[in-house]
Every structure is written in C-alpha cells, then in structure tokens.
Amino acid sequence: MIPTAARERAILVGVATPAQRRVRVDDSLEELGRLAESAGAEVVHRILQERHAIDAAFFIGKGKAEELSYLTVEKEIDLVVFDDDLSAVQVRNLERLIKCKIIDRSGIILDIFASRARTNEAKTQVELAQLQYTLPRLTRQWTHLSKQFGGIGTKGPGETQIETDRRAIRTKIAHLHARLRRIGREREVQRKGRDRYPRVALVGYTNAGKSTLLNWFSGAGVPVEDMLFATLDSTVRLVALSPAHRVLLSDTVGFIRKLPHSLVASFQSTLDEVREADILMHVVDVSHPRFEEQIAVVNETLEEIGAHGKPTVMAFNKVDALDNRNVIPYVGANFPGAVCIAAARGINMAALTAALTALLEGTVAEETLECGPGDYDIVSRAHEAGEILEERFDSDGIRLRVRMHRTRLEQLKKTLAERRNGRRAS
Fold this sequence. Notes:
6-stranded mixed beta sheet, 4-stranded parallel beta sheet, 426 residues
C-alpha cells in the first residue's frame, strides 16, 4: 500500500480473548490505527470482537467475516487491517469473502518501513523482511491456478507456478543475506575504528523522542516527526558531555509491540549498535497512558536481541505533555535513578547529562603517560579524548596526567609501549 493523494479507506479488526485484557486490545487497536495512518490510510471504522479463541479458518469466525464483507461494501472500504498476524489459510479464506485488500499488523509495519527506508542498508533489510514475510503466504497470490489433478504428468499449472516463485524468492533471500553480511562486516570495521570512545545507544518505544534527544545532545539534525517509525536508519554522533567524557551516541529504530520477527532478524546489523553499546539510554514517553507496558515491550525486545542487562539510564520524556503531574513522583518512586525531561524544550536536560556522566564514571581512569619527542600525535590524541590534569615538558619529552575512558587509555598505553619496544630494538 503506497500512500497517494486519495487515501485508502480502512477498517481495523481486533480480537480480545480471555487471555488478553480488553483494555490492552483496545490500546493495541488504537496503535494499529496510528500505524495505518502512518502508512497513508484513512481509518473509517474499528471492529473489536470478543472470542474464547482465535478462529483458525477466518481469525474472527465465518459469521463475523461475512458481516465484515457487507460492511466493506457499505462503507466503500479499500483495505481491512487485522491487529494480529494472519496465516496463509486465514488470508485465503478472508479474501474469498471480502473483496478488498487484506493485510495484518506485520504487513502494515513492513509497508511503513519500506516507505521510510533511505539508506541502502535499510532498504536491503526491509526487502529481506518483506520476502521472508511473503514466502509462507505465497499461496494466496495463485489461487486462480490452484486446481490440481492427481497422477504423474497431470499436475496443474498452479503448483508449478507457486514452486517457481518460491524458488525465486528463496534465491533472492540468499542474495540479500549475503549483501547484509557484507554490510555487517563494513559496520564492524567502522565500529572498531570508534572503539576509543564509550558507546551509548538510545532505545525506546517508537515515537518516544529518541531522535529529539540525539539532536539536543549533538545537533545531528535527524528528522523529528510525531509519527510511528519516523526514523529507521541508525545515526551515530560523537558527543562531548564534559572534557573527560566523550561518547558515541547512536539513535536506532524504535520498538513496538508485536514487532515482526522477520524485521528483528533483518535489522541485525543495525541492532548491533544496541548490542555492543556500553550504556543504554531508555527513552520513555511518560505522557502515554500505558507507558509501563511500553517499557515492558522494549525490555522484552532487548532480551530477544541479546542486549538486556546493560547499564541503563531511564529518561522519562515529554513531561510537558502530562495532564496528571502526579505521574512524576510515581516515576521517582518506582524507577530509582530515572530522570524526567522534556527533550523538545530542553527541560531538565542537565540532570540527564549528569546521570549519564555518573554512569560513565565507572569507565574512567587516571594515569600518567610518558611521551617521547616523537609521540606528539599521542599527546594530541590525549587532548582530544580526555581531560589533561597535568602537562609537563622536559628534555625527554612530555609527561601527561590524563583522565579518560579506560578503553582509550589502554589503547594509548599500548601504542606508547609498542613504540618504546621498537626504539629499543632499533
């Protein structure tokens, strides 16, 4: 679905089972509406059905599906969006009854990602996810060729066409995997070149304000919009929090409930920025009525990608949008060390910087470096990477008392030791 001037009219469909609270499904359906609008649709109706279990054939049951079919004609609907993933069987059965496009939550998220991807890496990741999503649902595209006749030499054209298309998709998937492995190796080289600085990754639910925070700290100019998944491509900027604390701050794709597994798998190289970070800054939209559920979704996703348990600063953003100010003391009582901010207006950002700096203190060390006459590049790098507490010049060179990130300090010491050994050998 590509957004056009004439927006497609959509109906949203959700199912509440006893295992799910209705309020949670209502919230999920509201979020689905925002996703549909982000994709370019106009939501004209919502349906929430209460069932004991999901119907294996039609998701919502045949009677409700028939009712939905009449409704799509009555309201001139172009698109029906389901709040959960549909199986190939469910899609096929629904398409037989409902004469308009059928799409599920994963499909619409993939559509948004496809329209927002800008870099070659993001486009490759999204294309791979789309193909992995399409492969098990391929049968719906060839129902007009599906008539089969038993026996050798009597196979109908449907099976041949489907299998041919599956082979083509699998081949394309293999090529995209190979391309992403090459991109991953390039990213790994880039990350090694940045190892001298601690890495801080911004994580959070989509539209929590991560890009706004990155812009505030670095002036990166990342586009900021009030919509889901406004930013897909990771952005990394060097930020000076203090003379002794320079960090690489990265903004990555936002998380969301029911995030398609194919997307998580495809965005592995981008999510490496999160996995390999020294510190996470978890940005929360505190103005959202169920922000604690969003926190849980983010934590579950971090666990899924192997990034859970890292030192984390909790930044509760958008306090200026709160209707109930009692939320602020609630956050303080239930999330020790959390900082309440409004990044768009710069409110309490000094406190957030202080919290991040305090967490970084554990990664900082002081030491004296003895630099020879030929080590002026080391002196320059020390000035760039840390705080110079003392600098003395003598006939043998320069003595520096420095305070900087342990990783960078160890690199400088290693370079000095290698040079001394080289001089002795010569």
